[in-house]
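In this section we walk through a basic example: taking a raw amino acid sequence and producing a predicted 3D structure, encoded as discrete structure tokens. The instruction is simple. Fold the sequence below.
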Amino acid sequence: MITEAIRSVVDGDDLDTATATALMDAILEDEMTPAQFGALVTALRLKVETAAEIAGFAASMTRHALQVDVDNAALVDTCGTGGGRTRWVGVSTAAAFVVAGAGAVVAKHGNRGVTRPAGSGDVLEALGVNLMAGPDLAAQALVEARIAFMFAQAFHPAMRFAGPLRREIGIRTVFNILGPLTNPAGAQRRLLGVGDPGLAPTIAEALRLLHIGRALVVHGHGGVDEISLSGPTRVFDVNDGAIARYEVTPVDFGLPVVDASELETHDAAVVANTTRELLAGRHHGPRRDVVLANASGALVAAGIAGDWRDGVSRAVDAIDGGAAIACLDHLVDVSNRSNGA
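The resulting token sequence is shown next.
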């Protein structure tokens, strides 16, 4: 099956979802040789991966992940693919705590920085979160802190085979875009940022095929995998088996236009300090405004906010009322407990 599938992709043929799932099963169960792995992911990249292929790979990866035993219907995740032209760090991470403070339950899935200087894992580690906290502590955190962080390297142990090979290949492969689609808690509500505008509709279609509850797939002005306030943001709204496409602008959120360069940074420790100050209500300016916009998007996806301005209002209340920083402090506490404590 593996050899036949590789030949098919090399010939330019698309794989169906079932075949893609079986191939990922083979990868994660160490049944594919390094040569076969390299040939497959390179051929897929050259052909261009389809939504059906991505959905099949994601379904297998999610099934092989360590599972968090919770009711996932109302869980929301804020994440991005990376790969954007602008190096924003920590926006979706800060937004996650604001969303939790506004009443949602956030199952955040993330990793260290790959296409940017630091990722959510780097920022949260600097804030004191134990990245290696397992499924039991994640389930506790969802109850006590209304937010949990599931570190990709800890929750996807089956990736031990593919990880080193990806680094050796050294090009963007389908694995670079699977992380945001493989939430170990099965979060059914998503704000998912995409740095490559050409990938956004494909990822939206993959989420539809995966029967996600509601997802806003966004690509922001300036090439960011966030909702942007420097210009319009493209939105692919996956809801009830359909996909709506539209744009939102800073006016829709009632927020000012910001200079994207003011949010660029290269240091996880600096971002962590700014994030704590922002969540505590002591940091104002462009970063806070962008975090409010992205929190609003997640609250809309979660069904808590009725529209973008309502989402911003709820996000402001979560910060200024102390709920957002309380969620961070609770997560730090729970993640550093011993399992079963």
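Looking at the output, two observations stand out. The longest helix spans residues 286-302. The chain is about 50% helix and 15% strand. In the next section we compare this with other chains.
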